Amino acid sequence: MKISHFTRISLAAILLFFIIFQSIAQEAKPVSIEIDLNKEKGQIKPIWSWFGYDEPNYTYMKDGKKLLTELSQLSKVPVFVRAHSMLVTGDGVAALKWGSTNAYTEDKDGKPIYNWTIVDKIFDTYIERGMKPIAQIGFMPEALSSHPQPYRHFWKPGDNYNDIYTGWAYPPKDYTKFAELVYQWVKHSVEKYGKKEVESWYWELWNEPNIGYWKGTTEEYIKMYDYSADAVKRALPTAKVGGPEVTGPNWDVSAKFFRAFLDHVTKGKNYVTGKIGSPIDVLTFHAKGAPKLVDGIVRMDMGTQLRDMNKGFEIVASYPTLKKLPIIIGESDPEGCAACSEDLSPQNAYRNGTMYSSYTAASFARKSDLAEARGVNLLGAVTWAFEFEDQAWFRGFRDLATNGVDKPVLNVFRMFGMMQGTRVDVKQNLAYNFLKVRDESVRGEPDINAFASKDQKEAAVMVWNYHDDNKPAPDSPVAIHVKGITAQKVLVQHYRIDQKYSNSYEVWKKMGSPKNPSAEQITILEKAGQLQLLTSPEWVNVKNGELTMEFPLPRQAVSFLKITW
Question: Signal peptide: which range, if any (predicted)?
Answer without folding.
Answer: 1-25
